[in-house]
């Protein structure tokens, strides 16, 4: 996605403080990249088919232009082929240049942004507050919920193949902050905002 960060396994980039998980993106030259960050993945430790997935998160300190925090899911086995054929579920995405608009979406072979058919919803909120981001995923639909309010629903078509509905396999969770990239960097990156304490997504 043309992003600028290097994902490390260091406690500078992912740590727990006062019971809160902090994922932190910082301006620093590292392995030919201009930033470091963390990407936490539950693959082979937490893999699920269907269920209710909630994250209480705050983006108060992750709003600079160029930030792209996300809580999302990818297939564990890629049974239907590479992206987007095996699917993607985005529980939360936010880009710094579009402050306050949070996004939930799905990607499949038939529905994705590369061909202009992506399915998703947007909710406008105060990102400095704590909020609960949630999906409810069943055999026939995925509901996207913000603080208990449903704002988008993706339904399985009656005649759906894997191209429309690859969501009958195990998926795992990913939490990360990307820097720049095809969406997050669409209006540039505020390098100075990543100095010092950097940009932090908090998860309770």
UniProtKB/TrEMBL annotation:
One of its GO terms (molecular function) is hydrolase activity, hydrolyzing O-glycosyl compounds. Pfam families: Glyco_hydro_16. One of its GO terms (biological process) is carbohydrate metabolic process. Residues 1-204 form the GH16 domain. SUPFAM superfamilies: Concanavalin A-like lectins/glucanases. Transmembrane segments: none annotated. Belongs to the glycosyl hydrolase 16 family. PANTHER family: GLYCOSIDE HYDROLASE FAMILY 16 PROTEIN (PTHR10963:SF55), GLYCOSYL HYDROLASE-RELATED (PTHR10963). This is GH16 domain-containing protein.
């Amino acid at each position: 996605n043309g992003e600028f960060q290097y994902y490390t396994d260091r406690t500078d980039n992912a740590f727990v403080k006062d019971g809160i998980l902090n994922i932190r993106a910082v301006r620093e030259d590292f392995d030919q990249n201009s930033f470091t960050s963390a990407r936490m993945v539950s693959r082979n430790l937490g893999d699920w088919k269907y269920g209710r997935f909630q994250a209480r998160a705050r983006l108060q300190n992750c709003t600079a232009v160029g930030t792209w925090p996300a809580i999302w899911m990818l297939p564990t086995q890629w049974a239907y082929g590479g992206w987007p054929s095996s699917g993607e579920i985005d529980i939360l995405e936010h880009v710094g240049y579009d402050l306050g608009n949070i996004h939930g979406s799905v990607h499949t072979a038939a529905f994705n942004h590369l061909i202009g058919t992506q399915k998703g919803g947007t909710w406008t909120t105060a990102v400095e507050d704590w909020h609960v981001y949630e999906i409810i995923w069943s055999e026939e639909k995925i509901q996207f919920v913000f603080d208990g309010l449903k704002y988008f629903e993706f339904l399985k078509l009656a005649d759906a193949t894997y191209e429309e509905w690859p969501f009958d396999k195990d998926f795992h969770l990913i939490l990360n902050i990307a820097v720049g990239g095809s969406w997050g960097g669409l209006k540039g990156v505020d390098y100075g905002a990543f100095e010092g304490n950097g940009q932090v997504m908090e998860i309770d």
